[in-house]
Design goal:
It is built from 12 helices and 20 strands. By secondary structure, the chain is of the alpha/beta class. The longest helix is centred in the N-terminal third of the chain and has 17 residues.
Length: 500
Amino acid sequence: MESGMDVPFDLAVIGGGVNGAAIARDAAGRGLSVLLLERGDLAQGTSSASTKLIHGGLRYLEHREFALVAEALHEREVLWAQAPHIVWPMRFVLPIVPEGRPWWMLRTGLWLYDRIGGRRTLPPTRRVRLEGRMGLQSDIRCGYEYSDCWVDDARLVVLLARDAADRGAEVRTRCPVTALRREGHLWRIDAGGEVFHAAMTINAAGPQVGELLGIAHAPRPGTLRKVRGSHIVVPRLHDDPRALFLQLADGRVCFAIPWQHAFTLIGTTDSEEGADADPPQASEAEITYLLDAANRHFRRQLSRADVVWTYAGVRLLADDGSGKPEAATRGYRFELDRGRDGPRDGRRGGQGAPLLSVLGGKITTHRTLAEAALERLGLMDNAGWTASAPLPGGDFKPDGMDEADNLAPLEQEIRAQAQNLSRATVHRLARAYGTEALGFVRGDMGRAIGQGFTEAELDHLVTREWAQTAQDVLWRRSKLGLWFSDEEVTLLESLLPAAS
């Protein structure tokens, strides 16, 4: 087996989801030599199968997760400022329904939601009259409107990894770890046909945390709990830009979110049954459950034939002893294995090679999780830096809540460099890449592949964002998977080897 690197890394991070990429970015920005290993594509698992929200988690208040909600609420505006091209504010409407919580409970929760997270720019809660608006049933007369944010989840992960690489990290995708063991004071990592060494290793493998601990012959905590969350996509249910937060008869909640102009995204579920399947898939029972939730609230009645796409992701939660999966904490915790002769605090220079496993977490708190992980390993030698550093393409300041106004100057620059691009394509490029789009947009964008996607954009994804397959391009980088025809997919696949 060939050697991957002659000089050991300070830190190896295994897992290219949002937590692993965030940890690699933070560590690289502190001057550490960092290796990030991902068995498939970046964000291929849970991190691209989320509800795509940057939010405090209003429902977590019911479970008294006040510290988690406050942390997440604080992060909303931090992340919006870091990446205003892929994170943007969204207003949510919470209808009052007879089978839901009483109005006073909702208002109390939203009052607290507005105040515990240091909200500065996002507008506060207000009461709204509905009475058939937003495509809702006529008996749903009023509700509350509040603020949270939306995120392009897979692009967030890619940009975290891109920033880590720009700061010196070595990022390897499609590089599964096959062996992990201590050799002296280092970790030996066999991955992708190579051998790497690192002083410390972080296990951020998400649902595969337990499997990686098995490979390392490390103690496996008895607190691992896998919960599948499934989503469905249906034709757009209303023309309003606001999302809906729906209360269901069994006490659960789900979202109905405008998506890609033509669709509505509905989810999520919480199920432990079948959560070990790889890859995870939405069950027919979950699909029916989400359709029933929509049909209770919307005038337009949906059937199974209306579902144009489903997806599911598995969350590894820190088991807090709660019975129902929806009640399990979305907070994070760490398990530190120092080895038989490991140091007490996990610092560099000790007698063992630490292995830190990440359990739980949510996409909104990825940045603070990364800081906490490095602190647990004794690597927070300097103050945190990531809160004020933009992600690639995010080096512009939003003026307010209106996405069109915020992107207008950038779209004008893109249009000046490539006047033949359609308005819709210019908007998509600005939203996906921010100022990074100016690096590959030009008069001649090469062959038109489909839906405004060109060879120039493909080359950027391959050379700068680790894309290798049509799945990488269409379902994680560009989000054009629902729009491409079979012929366009075939053309894309034929160009990928040449582009790489």
